[in-house]
Amino acid sequence: METGEKKKINRQARIVIIALIVCVAAIAVLLFLNRDNIAAGRWAQQNATLTFAVTGQDDIEVDYDYICSLPATDFAATIRSSGQTPEEVIYTGVLLQDVLDDLDIDISGCQGIRVYAADGYAIAAQIDDVLDRDNVYLAYKIDGEVMKNRDQGGWGPYQIIIREDSFSQRWAKYVMKIEFF
């Protein structure tokens, strides 16, 4: 090879190496900045804690036993995933409005809801979705089996199901926090 070609290849190799170092450093910085959220997600998943947050009120944390102690409902819902055949399943869960009533959480001044998942996913909905009876459920079983958490290959410990969302775009698995604003 000519000397000019070798210099060009060496320069390209250096650029690739520098780009890789910058990418690794950026990932490390992002992981560092999100360490609290990542740890909170793992904690909530392992211990099945669920946080309810309402603007102007203290946060309330509940555990799996509390959720299971509330009157449960079995309901059919169709899972629609892109590229897969829709599948009807039977969920077991609690109407979100019933959880709020039991915890004495006042959402009368709220306009919307945000649901945060342990994997970083989040959804938003209008408060009317929650107030609409028989619509928003906090599910913890699927087809009679306790939902496994993410580490076990499941969708739990909790999943938000909005029944009137026919394409399940606003469903959320791995739920760890529900916020009303």
What does this protein look like?
With 181 residues, this protein is α+β, with helices and mostly antiparallel strands. It has two domains: 3-33; 48-180, Oxidoreductase, molybdopterin-binding domain (Sulfite Oxidase, Chain A, domain 2, Alpha-Beta Complex), CATH 3.90.420. It contains five helices and eleven strands. Strands 3, 4, 7, 8, 9 and 10 form a six-stranded antiparallel β-sheet that branches. Strands 2-1-11-5-6 form a five-stranded mixed β-sheet. A hairpin with a 2-residue loop joins strand 7 (136-142) and strand 8 (145-146). The longest helix is centred in the N-terminal third of the chain and has 31 residues, at 3-33. It is elongated, with a radius of gyration of 22 Å. It starts with a helix and ends with a strand. The model is unreliable at 40-45 (pLDDT under 50).
